[in-house]
From TrEMBL:
<keyword id="KW-0687">Ribonucleoprotein</keyword>
<dbReference type="GO" id="GO:0005840">
    <property type="term" value="C:ribosome"/>
</dbReference>
<comment type="subunit">
    <text>Part of the 50S ribosomal subunit. Contacts protein L20.</text>
</comment>
<keyword id="KW-0694">RNA-binding</keyword>
<protein>
    <recommendedName>
        <fullName>Large ribosomal subunit protein bL21</fullName>
    </recommendedName>
</protein>
<keyword id="KW-0689">Ribosomal protein</keyword>
<keyword id="KW-0699">rRNA-binding</keyword>
<dbReference type="InterPro" id="IPR001787">
    <property type="entry name" value="Ribosomal_bL21"/>
</dbReference>
<dbReference type="InterPro" id="IPR028909">
    <property type="entry name" value="bL21-like"/>
</dbReference>
<comment type="similarity">
    <text>Belongs to the bacterial ribosomal protein bL21 family.</text>
</comment>
<dbReference type="InterPro" id="IPR036164">
    <property type="entry name" value="bL21-like_sf"/>
</dbReference>
<comment type="function">
    <text>This protein binds to 23S rRNA in the presence of protein L20.</text>
</comment>
<dbReference type="Pfam" id="PF00829">
    <property type="entry name" value="Ribosomal_L21p"/>
</dbReference>
Length: 102
């Protein structure tokens, strides 16, 4: 089984060929391909973590769509003072499909 740990949007994701992964927004249009930098590669029993070997590894993914995440509601409240503040947030996300690890 071949899989890789890639760096995407400040986080690390475990991916293999054919996986659908949701990342932080990537500046790419739907249908285009992107390359993700590999941090670790596992090919059967062989584990690669050396930086010079990983420079040769390319993980390519196809951008499926740009979406927005689930709404998060932030509500701050202080008792007996009449203070409350409501705020909402939705993350900008990109859904990709990993096409190859080479």
């Amino acid at each position: 089984m071949v899989y890789a740990i890639v760096r995407a949007g400040g986080r690390q994701e475990k991916v293999s060929v054919g996986d659908l992964v949701t990342l932080d927004r990537v500046p790419a249009e739907a249908g285009s391909t992107i390359e993700l930098p590999a941090v670790m590669l596992v090919d059967g029993d062989k584990v690669t973590t050396a930086a010079d070997d990983l420079a040769k590894v390319t993980v390519t993914a196809e951008v499926l769509e740009n979406v927005r995440g689930k709404k998060v509601v932030i509500h701050k409240f202080k008792n007996k003072t009449g203070y409350h503040k409501r705020q909402g947030h939705r993350s900008e996300l990109t859904r990709v499909k990993v096409t190859s690890i080479a």
